[in-house]
Structure formats: C-alpha cells, structure tokens
Design a protein that fits this description.
Layout lengths: L6 H20 L4 H11 L4 H25 L5 H25 L5 H31 L14 H18 L6 H9 L5 H27 L3 H21 L5 H22 L11 H25 L10 H6 L2 H7 L1
Helix pairs in contact: 1-2, 1-9, 2-3, 2-5, 2-10, 3-8, 3-9, 4-6, 4-8, 5-7, 5-10, 6-7, 6-8, 10-11
Length: 328
Amino acid sequence: MHDLLTHTALSVVIAGFIVGLIVGVTGMGGGALMTPTLIFLGVGDTTAIVTADLVASAFSKTGGALVHARAGSTHWPLAKWLILGSVPTALLGPEVLSLVVQPGQLDQVLMVAIGIAMLLAAATYAARLYLNLRRVRGGGEAADPDPRILPVATVLVGALGGLLVGITSVGSGSVIMVALLTLYPGLPAVRLVGTDMVQGIPLVLAAAISNIFLHGLQWDIVIPLIVGSTPGTMIGSRVAPHVPQSFVRRAIVVVLTMSAVALLDKAQIGLFGGGSHPLAAVAVGAAVVILLPLVWGAIRRRQGLPMFGAPTVAELERLPGDRQRSRG
C-alpha cells in the first residue's frame, strides 16, 4: 500500500490523466504518449512499463468506448473485422519477441522498437491530418456513415496494429486510425474515433494478457495509471466533438517525434554516434517545432485556407460541401 502513496505514484496519476484526456479527444492510442512518459519518469523496466500501460489502457479505453457507444458513434461491423485481425497478433507478438531476443537485451530492444513505432505513429498521424484536410476541402469522399466493409484489408490493418501494440503498446489509435481513414474516407471523424476506441479494448486486453504471462505485472504502476487515465479518457471523449483539434494534433506530431528521438538516443543505438547525446535530440525536436507549422501552413495555403486556424469536429460534421470549403 505504501508504494501507491509515493510522489512517483502521484506523477503517474497526473501523467495518466493528461494522456487519457488526449486519447479521448483525438482517438489517438495512449501507448504512443504514455509508454515513453513512464520510461522517462523511470518508474520501472521497459517490459514492466509496456505491460502496465496495456492493462491501464484496457480500463481507460473501456470508459471512452462506453461514452462513444452510448452516443451511437461506433461502427460495429468494422470493429468486428479489426478485432478479428488484431487479437491473434497481439497475443503472439510478445511471445515471438521473447524467443528471438536474449533476456539481457530485451529492455534495449524494446526501447528501440518503441522509438521506431513512435516515429511511425508520428508519420501516420501527420498523414491523418492531411487526409482530414483533404476531406474538409471536398477532395475526399462524400460523408458515408455506413460504408461497405473491405474484410481482407481491414483484417490486415488489425493484424499490423495488433503486432505493434503487442510488442510496444504503440499503434492502437495512431497507425490503425490513419489506415481506417485511407480505407473508409467517408466515415465521419467522430465515428472513426468511436470505432477505434471499441476495437482497441480486446486488442489491448490480448496484448496485456500475453505480456503479463511473460513479464508479470507491477501493481504500483498499474493502479495509478488506471486512476489517472480512466477519468481522463471519459472526459476527453465527452468534449471531443467541441474541441478545435487541428492545433492539438499538430502538437502531438511534434511531441511524438521529439519523444521518439529522445528514446532512441536513450537506448544508445548510435543515432547521433556512440553514447547519449541529449542536446542533439533537443536540436532535432526544435527543428520539428519550427519546421512543422511552416510546412503545414504551406499545405493549408495550397488548399486555399489561411495558414492557421481550424473548425471543430462538430463543425466539420455539420458543414457539407461548399460550407466546409468556406469555413475550412
């Protein structure tokens, strides 16, 4: 009990709440932010952190999924095909990794894998921003709340997401989300978030069970995470339709990139040469902070929009055709 009343536990609760809030608002997978945060807080081994984050995600996603399900923003057939692909690979991923990596190298390999997964998440999240922009400007498909399901492609997306989540806890709401945007461009944004939130429950449960079987479970990490992340996700899900998400999402791309670079540097894989180079990691992050808004602003200008500013999700959902183009 004493382990649950420490300053570290309070830090985990606060971090969990903030990440949960972001997950509920954006539909982004919490692992892409929570796992590196816990690693940098130094609350345990990487294997313990990945396992704890998966268990906590199962609880927080359940709260957010209930909100979306009650609001009718879940596409259940689509969620079913995603689950069919993701659960088996989420169960097998950690087992395969444990067979090919020696125990003494597992922490470093996991850090590298998480860093690479975060870079992938940042890239796919940036792609998601661009696809959303195209849809707002009328360049995408017309709104289609009940699209025809593509079973094979959807199962393959689920399988890739399950593998990433099972090994790193990253990928549930980032890689899968942009794949869904590509496959189903007419599906409304809020329904994308609701569907991803629901399919993420069995996905993270399967990944958590596999990791618990291999590495055990540290309750002094899990309980503060659940206490913080569950209400954060539920609150975020409630306010999601009314939040101007463009700035939030661009900030997430920057944070993901900076965190990934710092994590790869922490793993000392020679990203900037031998040893650790925190200043170099900061320099890369600063470059992203400066360049990303400029690049994104130029893209918006080419679409006929001002460089800054964006409508809320609720506004996007109720603005068809020419009204979207005038408000974009």
